[in-house]
Amino acid sequence: MRLVVLGATGGVGLEIVRQAIARNHHIKAFVRSAARLRPFDGQIDIDQGDLLNPDALEQAIRGCDAIVSGFGPRLPISKTDANLLRDFAAALTQAMRQTGVRRVIVVSTAFLFRNAIIPPAHFLGHLLFPGVVTDATAMERIFLTSGVDWTLVRPPQLTDKAHTGRYRVRDGRLPLFGFKISRADVADCCLRTVEDSSTVRKILGVSR
């Protein structure tokens, strides 16, 4: 598949790129700075630009089969990034409508699972990261009402542990005792999801 990876220089994004290459996808990374992608020179295409600019996104995604996004704010979140995810979703869905690209996989957060009990994800999110919950909620609302073929992947706490390919996925809920998952396994889930049409317009909880 011809995939555009957004947030390709973050922890999840770098793993998406690495694993997508191994799966023989054709990859384009659209990033603000390409420095962290130097290990992939000659293996992927790279465009540089502003991920909040719908015109720039339109040029980057035109002609692709799907978009996989690990884009997100860096912690601690600055005041200027308070609405980063919302603005990103607005720009991307506008670009998708303009280009006719329909498929997108987006990494969100397990903090939005109101029905999670162990762990109490929504409670912990509101307690510890209320800004993330507010912004991610706004982002998801835009995708849900956009008309595109979205899948939202909601992981709990991310770790830097190795890629195992062994994790749990639940439709519409966080797996019980789903406290952590590696960034590499979230990337694996995203790539399996983009290849699976049965996940269109579903919210997936994923954890170790």
Could you describe the 3D structure shown?
The protein is α/β, with parallel strands linked by helices and 208 residues long. It is 34% helix and 22% strand. Strand 4 (66-69), helix 3 (84-99) and strand 5 form a beta-alpha-beta unit. The longest helix has 16 residues, at 84-99. It starts with a strand and ends with a strand. The mean pLDDT is 95.
Largest sheet: 8 strands, mixed
**What is the terminal separation in angstroms?**
27 Å
Low-confidence stretches: none
Number of strands: 10
Overall geometry: globular
| Tally of helical runs | 6
In percent, how much strand structure appears in the residues? 15-25%
Task: Give the helix/strand class.
Answer: alpha/beta
Present the secondary structure layout:
Elements: E1 2-6, H1 11-22, E2 26-31, E3 45-48, H2 54-61, E4 66-69, H3 84-99, E5 103-107, H4 121-128, H5 130-144, E6 149-154, E7 157-159, E8 168-171, E9 180-182, H6 183-194, E10 202-207
Helix pairs in contact: 1-6, 2-3, 3-5, 4-5
Jot down its keywords.
globular; 8-stranded mixed β-sheet; alpha/beta; 208 residues
